[in-house]
Each structure stands twice: as structure tokens, then as C-alpha cells.
Write the C-alpha cells for this entry.
Amino acid sequence: MTKHDVVIIGAGPYGLSVTAHLRTIKGLDVCTFGEPMRFWQRNMPIGMFLRSGWAASHIASPNQSLTLGAFQTASGSPISRPVPLDRFLQYGLWYQRQAAPHLDQRKVLRVERHQNGFRIDLADGETVISRRVVVAAGISKFARCPQEFAGIPSYLASHTSEHRDLRGFGGKKVLVIGSGQSALESAALLHECGAEVEVVARSRQIRWLGGSVSNTLHQGLGFLSSMLYAPTDVGPAGISQLVARPNLVRPLPRSIKDWLRKRSIRPAGAEWLIARLQNVPFTLGRSIVSVVQVGEQVKVSFNDGSKRTVDHVLLGTGYRMDVSKYEFLAPELIRAISCFEGYPKLQAGFESSVPGLHFIGAPALWSFGPLMQFVVGTHFVSRSLHRHIFRKTTREHVQVAESKLSSDDSVFAMKHNN
């Protein structure tokens, strides 16, 4: 069996960033499994733009050498702002070639505990042993679909994450559910490809982030802006600075952490979408009562008594965390992970209740706060995990050395006494 010190499962921004940082620890054997930027390539629509600003869209790297700016220079092609999905994908793949050139793209089938840490079974039949496992497997398994759509076939209702290309909906009548970035940008893309679109949401207003109004406010505050808004670009004034420091968030009472999450990642859209949605009708303050299939269409009834019969319903209804849905985690391992509503309870270094098993990215949100849901969170995560594993590895090496020295002393004493 092949043995490693650390196995990382997942090769999105978090998995790649942690790989880059851990590879700087001398003598540490790190192996990363995953298809690079898989979720971004398969589960986000063509034509999408990143909601986060330029400064918050870099994947963390040692010495900050692999930034968007560095990629722009290396590619010889400018990147517009907001950052287009296709350019960010190119950036992520370029980052992978620099930071994890030996990425192993074989699929991980199973992870279970082993006397030397963890046993990892791969799709080709090979088995790997690792002292630590870092789960950076993303959110594709956690798409949230309202229970009213449970019996509706996918060709009539689907989650936004199920579509790479929305152009197939041209000429069709599509109902988009939700008021966040995913729902709003999908509605814009659908409208632009010729679909007849309506957006329906429970919220009574659409919140818009960034753009000219926000920039004017920041500029008007002058030096106070940097005191109220962290460069991470997550959360409103004041709260932004706290959210940018996950080590301060982690020990806070649960009620405060929940409040921070709600204030920082409420459904909202980037202000640059407003112009693209001018001709798209919005119906707000409505909740779904029932959904039924009517021939090759679907009829949706709302709490005000209104109904819509459409060709397709696109659900921009977010994600619901549940690490038990990671199919590669053995049942025994899942039972041993202390969780709250699907989120693993994490300690320092993103370590779960199972020693040596770490979770990073969105699953860490419950313990470390809203920053974990964004690319900009890779900066904190990578530094923290690097520091944690470096200390653990150093301590383990010292213990091994001391044990060997003690053993050698015992042998010497026995020979001397004889």
C-alpha cells in the first residue's frame, strides 16, 4: 500500500490552496485526489461572472505568488471585471499546474479508519494509507430542493447547479425560484438566450451588493472605510471585520454566530445584474404551496392563490450542508463525526471529532463563520491548516525521536549491565 502523511480529497480552490501550502512543509508527503476545478467546470453556467470583487477572488498561495494578476500577466490576456467564469476557470487550472502538478485524478471511493490513520480506496482498486485526511470536496452533493418538488422529474424542475449551459431553454417558459446571486444571474442568462422568464421569491425585496452605490459609500467614508470593511468583502460594515477573522468567530456563542451568518450571506445579487434584469418580471413575497406535473409542463401554486404553468422551474434555492452525503466516507466514520444540522463541529486546524480528519470550505461554516463559503476564505484556511499540521508533524517527529532515543538507551543499559 502507498503511504502518505496527508491526503487531500478535492481539487477546487480550497483543495488546491491547501496543497500548495502543505507542500512547503519539508519532509511532509502530501497527495491530492480530484478533478481540478470540477464543480466550477460542471455546475456553473456558461456566461456567469463572479460576484466577489477582484481583491476577494484570488486563490491563496504561499507568498501570494499565484494571484489573478500573476495569471493575467502569464497568459498575456487581460481579465475584465467582474471576473468571467471562463477566465476564473483558466486561472484555477493554471494555479493547479503551478501548485499541484502531480494531482491524482482518480476517484476516491471510500475512506475509513485504519490503525495508521485512514485507509483510502480508489476507483482503480488501489488502496492508500494516510495519517491525515483533509476533505475539500465542495458542495455539489448539498443542492437544496424544496420538498414540494420531490416527485417532479428533473426535465421539469431542477437546481441551478445542474446546468452548465442554459441556452437549451431558449423559447421556453421558465420560472426561477430564489433571490440570491445564482437565481438572479440564471434569470438574466435565460432571458438573454430567449427564454420567457419570471423570478418568484419569498423575500419582499431584492438586495443588491456592490456596484456604484457601494463604491461611492466606501469612497465617501475615506479612511473609515478600511476600518469598517475588510478586504475579504464578506458582510456589511463592521461585521465584515469580524467575519474576516474566523479565529474570533469560532469561540462566539452559537446565537451570535448564527446572527453573523444571516447578516453576512443573506440572499442578494450583484448590482451589475440590475440592468440585465430590467425586462424580467419579479413576483416577491410569495411561497410555494404545491407543485404538480401537467402533461409536459409543471403547475406551481403560491400562498396568495396565484398559479403558474411553465415548461420548467429552475431552483436557485441554495445548499443544505450534510457531510453524511459525502459517499466516500464510511458509515462508521460518519457516525463518529460530531455534527450539528449536517455541519461537522471543528476544532483548531479544522479537525473534526475524528482525530486526523479535517473539513475545509463550506462544511467549516458552522464552526468558523461565513468566510468559509467564499474563495477568499482560502487565505485563512490554508495558513491555519499549514500551521496546525506543521506543529503536529513536528511534535510527532520529536516523539518518535525521543522514543527511539529511549529505546537505544535501554539497549545500551542492558548491554552495559551484562
Remarks:
- The chain has a mean pLDDT of 93.
- The domain at 147-206+267-315 is CATH 3.50.50.60 (FAD/NAD(P)-binding domain).
- The chain has 13 helices and 18 strands.
- The first helix runs from residue 13 to 22.
